Amino acid sequence: MSFIAKRGISTLIPPKVASPAGLGAAKDAVRMSRVVDFYTKLPKGPAPPRKTPGLLGGYQDKYFGKKASGMPIVHVIVGIMAIGYAQAYYFHIRHHKNNAH
Amino acid sequence: MVSLSNSLSFISSPLDQFEIRTLLSLDAPILANMEITVTNIGFYLIVGVSIAFILNGLATNYYQITIYATIHSIVVNQINRTKGQIYFPFIFSLFIFILVNNLIGMIPYGFASTSHFVLTFSISFTIVLGATILGLQKHGLEFFSLFVPAGCPLALLPLLVLVEFLSYVSRNVSLGLRLAANIVAGHLLLHILSSLTYNIMTSGFIFFFMALLPLSFVIAFSGLELAIAFIQSQVFVVLTCSYIKDALELH
């Protein structure tokens, strides 16, 4: 069949619009797949808490604000006791190790 | 008897805890041979101020709301609802400073900076002097009407002015004396009681259990001292407010 004849028939027969293979294949399938890809890569779940900047930011996040606790007081007490004992040892205790006053 | 005297001699001087010792000393022929020294009181004051600063920077809610509101109500009630607000930062930092230093003194092996009259007197003299300057600046020579009680007979005036003047000057001493004397007395009491308890406890098996009673007193007094640390800083701040009010409003 010549090309011209084919053309003639094709104008008569309506184009095959709905084929089982082409059912889900949208025109912008490539774009959609990119969008889906983008959203699947986004982090899921609640947003992680923002870290406070600064030298003591981590300490603040841990013991202040929403997670307020009494631990900083314990840290101060332990620190001052350590410093104080070191001083007491140097100035006083080591002189009385084996002999009382 | 020998063992008893031996064990009793273990009690060190209760005043030992207030001793000022040199930690760091610069002894070089510079700056006209000036001696630059960091003593333990200086060290603990630096620590106290650092704690106050860091706590203020880190705290976000509860700490600030309660103490802030307490001090704010003191300032507003003692001085003036409108004119007193400007003194709030000073009063707040004064309270925190005294409180932190009192509490550092309560920590075992700590050092009570506020037990030293040199510190408390320098604060109290500065405050009363500042209040006097404030009054003179605000009222000029009229400030001296503070020493004249209202409606006093003329014949009594010289005596009453003298008495009022003395009472005004004695504020200097009383303000600082009250704080340091309270802290010294508390620390002495705790030291003496706990040394005695320690000596009783270490002198025998039965004595160990007998000394649990005095030990409970020591613990109770520690709680009392903790309360005094708060109360004294509050009293200091309230009196400072009332002195400022006197200078502002002249009775």
Automatic annotation (TrEMBL), chain A:
Q: Which InterPro entries match?
A: ATP_synth_F0_fsu_mt_fun
Q: What is this protein called?
A: Mitochondrial F1F0 ATP synthase-like protein subunit F
Q: Which domain of life is it from?
A: Eukaryota
Task: Provide any one GO MF term from the record.
Answer: proton-transporting ATP synthase activity, rotational mechanism
The transmembrane segments are: 73-91
> What keyword terms does UniProt attach to this protein?
Membrane, Transmembrane, Transmembrane helix
TrEMBL record, chain B:
Q: Which UniProt keywords apply?
A: ATP synthesis, CF(0), Hydrogen ion transport, Ion transport, Membrane, Transmembrane, Transmembrane helix, Transport
Q: What is its main location?
A: mitochondrion
Which Pfam families would you find in this protein's record? ATP-synt_A
Question: Which GO terms label this protein's molecular function in UniProt?
Answer: proton-transporting ATP synthase activity, rotational mechanism
Question: What is the top-level taxon of the source organism?
Answer: Eukaryota
Q: Which residues cross the membrane?
A: 41-65, 86-111, 117-136, 143-163, 175-193, 200-220
UniProt-listed InterPro entries? ATP_synth_F0_asu (IPR000568), ATP_synth_F0_asu_AS (IPR023011), ATP_synth_F0_asu_bact/mt (IPR045083), F0_ATP_A_sf (IPR035908)
Which PANTHER family does this chain map to? ATP SYNTHASE SUBUNIT A
How is this protein named in the record?
A: ATP synthase subunit a
> Whose protein is this, by species?
Terfezia boudieri ATCC MYA-4762
